[in-house]
Design a protein that fits this description.
With 87 residues, the chain is mainly alpha-helical. 52% of the residues lie in helices and 6% in strands. It contains 4 helices and 2 strands.
Length: 87
C-alpha cells in the first residue's frame, strides 16, 4: 500500500483502517465500502459473466466474483452479507 492513500468513500487510510477492519480492493476504495452495496444476487450475476468469459467452473467464478468485491471467497461473502442484512 502506498503512503497517503485514503478511501474515497469513508476516508480510512493505510495507518487507520475501518473499525471492522478493511483492505484495499481498488486504488481508492476499501473492502468495507466495496462490500456495503454488494448483494448475493449481484455476486451470482457477476459470477455467471466470469464463468462465460473465462470458461471456468461456476464455483470458481463465484469465488472470483466475491474476491473482486473485496471478500475472501464466496462463503465469506455469504456470511458477511447475511450478518449485515440481519443487523
Amino acid at each position: 500500500m502506498s503512503a497517503g492513500r485514503a478511501c474515497a468513500f469513508c476516508g480510512c487510510t493505510n495507518l487507520q483502517a475501518c473499525p471492522s477492519g478493511c483492505h484495499w480492493v481498488s486504488e481508492n476504495q476499501c473492502s468495507a465500502c466495496a462490500q456495503k452495496g454488494v448483494t448475493i444476487d449481484r455476486l451470482k450475476r457477476t459470477a455467471k459473466r466470469i464463468k462465460r468469459e473465462e470458461g471456468i467452473l461456476h464455483a470458481h467464478a463465484l469465488d472470483a466474483a466475491a474476491k473482486r468485491a473485496g471478500f475472501g471467497n464466496y462463503v465469506h461473502a455469504r456470511r458477511v452479507i447475511a450478518k449485515r442484512d440481519d443487523a
